[in-house]
Amino acid sequence: MKQHTKAGAVSTAGLLISLGIIYGDIGTSPLYVMKAIIGDAPISQTLVYGGISCVFWTLTLQTTIKYVLLTLQADNNGEGGIFSLYTLIRRRAPWLIVPAMIGGAALLADGIITPPISVSSAIEGLRILKPDIPTVPIVMAILTLLFVMQRFGTEIVGKAFGPVMLVWFTMLASLGAVAVVDHPEILEALNPRFAYELLVHYPNGFWLLGAVFLCTTGAEALYSDLGHCGRHNIQFSWAFVKTCLLLNYLGQGAWLMTQQGQQLQGNPFYGIMPGWFLLIGISIATIAAVIASQALISGSFTLISEAIRLNLWPRVRLIYPTNLKGQLYVPSINWLMWLGCLGVVLYFRESERMEAAYGLAITMAMLSTTILMSYYLYTKFHSRMLVMLFLLVYSTIEGAFLVANLSKFSHGGWVSLLIGGMLLTVMYIWIKAFQIKRSLAEYVRLKEYLPALKELSADETIPKYSTHLVFMTSAPHPKEIESKVIYSIFQKRPKRADIYWFIHVETTDEPYTSEYKVRKLAEGDVIRIDFKLGFRVEQRINLFFRTVVEELVQNGEVDITSRYHSLNKQQLIGDFRFVVLEKFLSYENDLPLAKRIIMEWYFSIKEFTSSESKWFGLDTSSVKVEKVPLVIMPAQLPQMKRVMV
After folding, report:
1. Which of 94, 256, 111 shows the shortest CA–CA distance to 176?
2. What's the CA gap between 592 and 598, in Å, rounded?
3. CA 286 – CA 281 distance, rounded (Å)
4. Are 405 and 363 in contact (CB under 8 A)?
5. What is the pTM of this model?
6. What are the transmembrane regions (predicted)?
7. pLDDT (tens digit per residue) in 240-270
8. Which of 147, 307, 333, 583 could link 630 by a cystine bridge, Cβ 3.0 to 4.6 Å?
9. 322 Cβ contact list (under 8 Å, min separation 6)
10. How far apart are CA 8 and CA 233, in angstroms?
11. Are 227 and 302 in contact (CB under 8 A)?
């Protein structure tokens, strides 16, 4: 795959795309964080200063240090995300697939919860201008438009959203700076002493962490979208984004202190706006909040592509809208998320009710990342002290956020856990079914069947099945082949061909590997091709195979002209036919309940996913699909007794 830009290079376009793709969620947090912290309580210095202090140190410890400085270093050749992180350590610690699955499911659930909240919050802001405006139909229409746009790729989306977010962050900084200049004493709120006083001494102060956590919910997206923007673009742009966010939080705090002793009326975000700017500010905030959905959507596509490679998700269609690195679109996930978002909107209807479901899932994803990152740091630095410090600090911080967010469970938090649980169930079924099938894979020595293949190829008493017969094989060793392939060639219906081709595809941990090896197992009769493809390379095996064959012909290594005497005179190329063996669950199984449920669900889900031929990008006009029964545990038949007539 041709790449036009370097993954880590900093560029103006890259920085702008970063603003448009990954900062929507975390960038729109000033709209609701301070309002959520204050709540119905009387405005006091402890509450305002403590809230801002908590926000500042959360952004510093959680977002800046953990994600921007540390976690972004754990890139898999430019790709990020919790599954990419697991890939880096799975050979040493395969058991860590459990937190990886939990984190991945939680992130996907958050991708379904975030868009409805962001868009609803934006549209409900229009009630300041028109109190009786019907928000639900507008929210559903905007969400539909947002998901339709995904098919054009995150490069196009980022270029469209980037300039808007640049205006948004500039507005945040400007409004906040004006308020801070008028009340510079608010800068004292950055002292961690105020955070301590709020959490320890203020009544129910600890539970305010659930509101504080909203300021960093988009941090996981920084890592998930690493492949879309590049590490250096994210790190450079974050310095600008964090400065803008802090200025706005400080500005809101300065405005709140002018209302000390009163209950909060309205939103402090709009409180720092001058009256003449209010209409403009609401419009920009509305557009920015709509864009907030993009970070989780693009991150979800990356997660799914990596889950497929890890056998944690069905093989669904992947589309690469552009040739730029990291550009990915997954139609089935796009529309599944769209349906989920519409369901959330119709169920909750108001953003205030949706907030209860917000944050709980992403906290579990962050805890999962902490566990995986701890092991990664150990493999890289071999320092138990460093790992223990990292694990202790962030498990404590995120554990506190998790406990505080659990208070939302009965008020709607169960929705995000339900969605995450359903996604986790699919992952569990898929990986368990893969393990069961792999344990049953039976390979035979191909060398023992080479003489029979040569004889079959020359046996003119058998009608020729195809000039070139191509089998997809999962056998990793070139000297082996699945027994079911041998059965298909010799016993199901003898398949005579001039040349037998066996193709094996290995997906590597690197994203853009494109290599192949050719082995002539029997000169002129049996050839094996091994493709090594990166997990981000689209598996167009039909095109790859054709390219390899053309190169072999040019080098004089193989003759693909037909061996029919009349056709050979005309130098006509013989036909190619692919045979794909697909398994189905045999009725001859006598499975325990757990395994039976897993395999039945596996094959039920498989009916709605891409076939093997589509996944490998084979030409359907030249593909023969054969069904092969999967017998896991043969049924124990009763002993039969013959009755004489």
Report:
1. 256
2. 10
3. 8
4. yes
5. 0.79
6. 93-113, 133-149, 161-181, 235-255, 275-308, 328-348, 360-378, 385-406, 412-431
7. 999 999 999 999 999 999 888 888 877 888 8
8. 583
9. 153, 155, 156
10. 7
11. yes
